[in-house]
Amino acid sequence: MDGAKTPLAAGGKRELEEALLHIIQRHHHQSLRQSQQTERAKKDALRSALRVSDLLVDTVDGGVQELFVNEKRIEHEARALLTTIARYRKQTDQWLAATNEINSVLKEIGDFENWMKIMGFDCKSINAAIPNIHRS
Known about the structure:
mainly alpha
């Protein structure tokens, strides 16, 4: 009986080994396929992340560039405004000086007019006194 079992056992063992070897090979192939798919998915995810990153940077840079352009424009307009203010300040100072001169002249005219009134009053007083002096 032992002799009869040996060829069957050897044949069954070989079939089992072949089946196991086939399972191992299939597992190895599936593992390789999964590994390749995982690697492709990683690469795709990395490309997608880089694209998103580039888009975000472009969006932020676009906003920064617009801010930079606006800042330059505001600086230019601020300089122009300062120039205009300086010109108006100079003109205002000139008008103030002219107004002060006019006020001084008007004051002098007022003083002269007052002096003339006093002189007129004095002349009338002298004219009135002359006939009185002449009579006496």
